[in-house]
C-alpha cells in the first residue's frame, strides 16, 4: 500500500537534498540576474533617449507576453543554432533571470514613481550628481517600498525552476520524475517534491518578513 | 563698492508656451537678505530655483564667486555637470516640503553631504552636525527618523542640513508655507538669527511681517519680472497699484509673524 512506501521515499533523502541545493542555487543566481536586468530596464524607461526607452519597453512587452517555458526553450534549444551553446544550468539561470527581470523592472518602476520629486531635488541641491542621488537617496527608499512585491517575485522564480526539468537540469522535479520512472510511485514522490518546495518558499518568506520588520520603524 | 556675491542678468525661462521669467536681473552683495514676494505664478520660485539651476534658464548670465555662466545651450560658458555640482555645493537650498530623507536619521541627514561631497572625515562631520543640532535645540533627536519630528523640527533640520555644507548663499523657497501656524515661528526665528550673523540669503516668502523686519531688500515679482524693488519700506508704502493690491490681499489673509514681537531690540534668536 501507499502508506508503506513513504519509508522508501526517505531513502532518497540525500538525492532530494542535492536537488534542493540545485533549486536554491538557481534561485539565488536568477534573483541576482533579474535584479540586474530589472534595475537597468526600469532606469532605461526613464531615459531621455527615446531608443533606450523603446528597447526597455520592448523587452518587458516580449517577456510578459510569451510563456516562460517558450523563453527557456529559445535560450536552451534555439540559441545553439546561432552558435551560442549554454549548459542546461546556465541556460536556465539566464532564461529565468531575463524573464523575472521584466517583472522586477515593473516593480521597481512603481517604486520609483512613489518617491516624491523633492527627495531627488534636495540631494541635487546639495551638489550630488544624478547617479549619486539615485544610488544613495532614491534606491534605498525604493527597496523598502518594493520589498513585499519583490519577495513575491522571488517565490515565483523559485517555483519556476521546475520548468528547467524540461531542459535536463536535475532539479527537484526532474529528479522525482526519474525516480517515478523506476518505482511507479508518482503520488508519494510528487507530494514529497511539493513539501520540499513549501519548505524552500517558507524560508524565503520568513527571510523577507524579517527584513520588512527591520525596516518597518523607518520612514 | 564691493563686487556682488551673486549677479544675474536677463534670466529667461519658459515652460512650453508659458514664459515664466522675462529677463530678470539682480545683484546680491555678501550679507544681504533679499525677500522675494509675489502672487503664485509670478515666477518667484522659478527664479529662486534657477539660481542653483534646479530649473535651468534658457538664457541669461550668472556670476557667483569665481564662477560665471552663460545659460544659452550653445554657449561655451554653459555650465557643465561638474560646475553645476560645485555651484550647488556652495549654495544651500531649503524647500517648502522639507524633503528630509526618511530612511536616514536626523544625524545621517546632516552628515551625508559633507562626508560624501566635501570628503570631510566622519568624526569631524558628526562633531559639526552635533554643534548645529544643539544650536537649534534638537541634539537629543539626532538618532530619530524624520517621521518622528514635527514639521517645524523637520524644517529646522533641513536648514541645518544645508548649513552643514558651509554655503556662501542660502535660498529659502517658501519654507514656512507647509507648516502648521504654530510651528512657523520657530523656523522664522532660526532664519532671522542666520540673517543677523551675516548669512547672505534669498527667500521667497508670504510672511510679509518677516520680510519687513529681516530683509535688507524686497523684490516684488509680477508676471515674470521684478515689478517693484527697494527697501522693506515698500511693504508699508507700495508705489505700484499691483503691489498695493497684492499686499492688501495677503495681509487680510494672515495675522503675520513678526519677529520683532519677541524682543525689544528687534531681531534676536
TrEMBL record, chain A:
GO cellular component: ATP-binding cassette (ABC) transporter complex
A GO BP annotation: amino acid transport
ABC transmembrane type-1 domain span: 20-208
UniProt keyword terms in alphabetical order: Amino-acid transport, Cell membrane, Membrane, Plasmid, Transmembrane, Transmembrane helix, Transport
Localization, UniProt: Cell inner membrane; Cell membrane
Record flagged with keyword Transmembrane: yes
Domain of life: Bacteria
Tagged with keyword Cell membrane: yes
Membrane-spanning residues: 20-44, 56-77, 89-108, 189-211
GO terms assigned for molecular function: transmembrane transporter activity
Membrane-topology annotation of the record: Multi-pass membrane protein
Family: Belongs to the binding-protein-dependent transport system permease family. HisMQ subfamily.
Function (record text): Part of the binding-protein-dependent transport system for glutamine; probably responsible for the translocation of the substrate across the membrane.
Protein name, as recorded: Putative glutamine transport system permease protein GlnP
Organism encoding this protein: Shinella sumterensis
From TrEMBL, chain B:
GO molecular function: ABC-type amino acid transporter activity; ATP binding; ATP hydrolysis activity
Subcellular location: Cell membrane
Record has Membrane as a keyword: yes
Assigned GO CC terms: plasma membrane
Membrane topology category: Peripheral membrane protein
A Pfam family the protein falls into: ABC_tran
Record keywords: ATP-binding, Cell membrane, Membrane, Nucleotide-binding, Plasmid, Transport
SMART domains xrefs: AAA
PANTHER family with a match to the protein in the record: AMINO ACID IMPORT ATP-BINDING PROTEIN, L-CYSTINE IMPORT ATP-BINDING PROTEIN TCYN
Family per similarity comment: Belongs to the ABC transporter superfamily.
This protein's name: Amino acid ABC transporter ATP-binding protein
Amino acid at each position: 500500500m501507499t502508506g508503506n512506501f513513504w519509508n522508501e521515499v526517505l531513502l532518497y533523502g540525500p538525492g532530494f537534498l542535492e536537488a534542493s541545493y540545485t533549486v536554491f542555487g538557481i534561485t539565488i543566481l536568477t534573483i541576482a540576474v533579474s535584479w540586474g536586468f530589472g534595475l537597468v530596464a526600469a532606469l532605461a524607461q526613464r531615459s531621455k533617449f527615446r531608443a533606450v526607452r523603446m528597447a526597455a519597453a520592448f523587452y518587458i512587452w516580449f517577456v510578459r507576453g510569451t510563456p516562460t517555458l517558450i523563453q527557456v526553450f529559445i535560450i536552451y534549444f534555439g540559441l545553439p543554432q546561432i552558435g551560442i551553446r549554454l549548459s542546461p544550468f546556465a541556460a536556465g539561470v539566464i532564461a529565468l533571470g531575463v524573464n523575472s527581470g521584466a517583472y522586477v523592472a515593473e516593480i521597481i518602476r512603481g517604486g520609483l514613481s512613489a518617491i516624491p520629486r523633492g527627495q531627488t531635488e534636495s540631494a541635487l541641491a546639495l551638489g550630488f550628481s544624478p547617479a549619486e542621488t539615485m544610488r544613495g537617496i532614491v534606491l534605498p527608499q525604493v527597496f523598502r517600498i518594493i520589498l513585499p512585491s519583490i519577495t513575491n517575485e522571488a517565490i515565483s522564480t523559485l517555483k519556476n525552476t521546475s520548468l528547467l526539468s524540461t531542459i535536463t537540469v536535475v532539479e527537484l522535479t526532474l529528479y522525482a520524475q526519474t525516480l517515478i520512472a523506476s518505482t511507479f510511485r508518482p503520488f508519494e514522490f510528487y507530494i514529497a517534491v511539493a513539501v520540499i518546495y513549501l519548505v524552500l518558499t517558507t524560508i524565503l518568506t520568513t527571510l523577507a518578513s524579517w527584513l520588512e520588520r527591520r525596516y518597518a520603524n523607518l520612514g | 563698492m564691493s563686487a556682488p556675491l551673486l549677479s544675474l542678468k536677463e534670466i529667461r525661462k519658459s515652460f512650453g508656451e508659458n514664459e515664466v521669467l522675462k529677463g530678470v536681473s539682480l545683484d546680491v552683495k555678501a550679507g544681504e537678505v533679499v525677500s522675494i514676494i509675489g502672487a503664485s505664478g509670478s515666477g518667484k520660485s522659478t527664479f529662486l530655483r534657477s539660481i542653483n539651476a534646479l530649473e535651468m534658464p534658457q538664457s541669461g548670465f550668472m556670476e557667483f564667486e569665481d564662477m560665471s555662466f552663460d545659460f544659452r545651450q550653445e554657449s561655451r560658458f554653459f555650465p557643465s555637470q561638474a560646475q553645476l555640482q560645485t555651484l550647488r555645493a556652495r549654495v544651500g537650498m531649503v524647500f517648502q516640503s522639507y524633503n528630509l530623507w526618511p530612511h536616514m536619521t536626523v544625524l545621517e541627514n546632516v552628515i551625508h553631504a559633507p562626508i560624501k561631497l566635501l570628503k570631510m572625515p566622519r568624526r569631524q562631520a558628526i562633531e559639526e552636525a552635533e554643534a548645529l543640532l544643539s544650536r537649534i535645540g534638537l541634539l537629543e533627536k539626532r538618532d530619530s527618523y524624520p517621521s518622528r519630528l514635527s514639521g517645524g523640527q523637520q524644517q529646522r533640520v533641513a536648514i541645518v542640513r544645508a548649513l552643514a555644507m558651509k554655503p556662501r548663499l542660502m535660498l529659502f523657497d517658501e519654507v514656512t508655507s507647509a507648516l502648521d501656524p504654530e510651528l512657523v515661528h520657530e523656523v522664522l526665528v532660526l532664519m532671522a538669527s542666520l540673517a543677523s550673523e551675516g548669512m547672505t540669503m534669498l527667500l521667497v516668502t508670504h510672511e510679509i511681517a518677516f520680510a519687513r523686519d529681516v530683509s535688507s531688500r524686497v523684490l516684488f515679482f509680477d508676471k515674470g519680472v521684478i515689478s517693484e524693488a527697494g527697501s522693506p519700506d515698500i511693504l508699508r508704502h507700495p508705489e505700484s497699484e499691483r503691489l498695493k493690491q497684492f499686499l492688501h490681499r495677503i495681509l487680510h489673509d494672515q495675522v503675520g509673524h513678526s519677529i520683532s514681537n519677541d524682543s525689544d531690540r528687534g531681531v534676536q534668536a
